[in-house]
Amino acid sequence: MTTKTDTVTALEAQHVLQTYKRQPVVFVRGEGTRLFDADGRAYLDFISGIGVVVLGHAHPGLAAVIADQAKTLVHTSNLYYHPLQGQLAARLSALSGLQRAFFCNSGTEAVEACLKFARRFWYSQGVRNRTGYVALEHGFSGRTMGALSVTANAHYRDPFGPLIPGVTFVAPDDIAGLEAAVTESTAAIIAEPIQGEGGVRPLSPEFAAAIARVTRKTGTLLIADEIQCGLGRTGHAFHYQSLGWTPDLVTVGKAIGSGIPIGAALVGEHVAKQIFAGDHGTTYGGNLLSTRAALYVLDQLDALKPHIANMGALFEQRLLDLQRKHPVVTAVRGAGLMRGLELAVDAQPVVEAALKANLLVNRTAERVVRMLPPLTVSAAEIEEAIAILDGALASVKVEGSTVEVRA
User: CATH fold of 62-300, please?
Assistant: First the structure.
């Protein structure tokens, strides 16, 4: 018997470019922290569209705002003014301390913008040799050509070379290497305060301080990549604020629209003064639908701050309980509601066991189970997820360097 899932996957296999290895499930509806598949089966969603759906699925307030804007005005292009870009830029400025925003459609586009703006900053001042970038091993900034050039993983990079020249990668614990890498030809350092795709790896306070010190000493611009860890995910408006950074540029994506595509490059005034009309552009970026959604999301995130702090503390404690119980767990990393379980083995069997038990998590950096639940997640849902993870972890054991999945 052919199921709806079979029909969907067969059609994709014929017509959709096969750039994703999807899990064998078709989702058709969501509500809060739950997703429902084509057969009506409910799943607890602890990946939230890779950290995107921060208000949960089918949030009634966000749905009402989107519907209202859709029947009013969706898009006019950036040839004209509309009332919402300025409002959103002002809100982001108040949260970040950076005075200006360029709106785009995704975090990757925000990275591309910041890389361009960093070069333009020096070019406008007649400094033509500061075109290089320093990025971090385990870092991930996206898959377009510029963002890929500052992404460390050779698996993503090698098929598409040559990429942008002049990028130096430094290990995120190598202070001496960082100091040596930043030269008079370096335009900017780009770094995630918590490396998401790289395995939910927070930068150490010592290395974060070294980045701040080196950028101050050399005048090198600092791009804080907050696409995954920003906008409340870790309990801070932006996680760089907990590191004492004063970045020159900040990339924003994922959470800001809670599912409506929008990104932003936040730009300090000293950098903005060196950027001019025609230096960058976008057709869809900052349209009325996306900015209206983002304004609503920011309103909700303000009210969620105490909840995120409480749920983040509970989540961390319960994950540490799992580590104490299961020797296969070698580390619990992250902050707030951005967490990773590092395993002694490949994480895929645990992810698959969780899926069978109706919990959605994902594998990153091979041995890390990553969790990014909606910021509205409840204590009861955290306990439910922990119970499922407990069973999933119990289904694997270390046999030398291999994984045995118990029946």
Answer: Aspartate Aminotransferase; domain 2 (3.40.640)
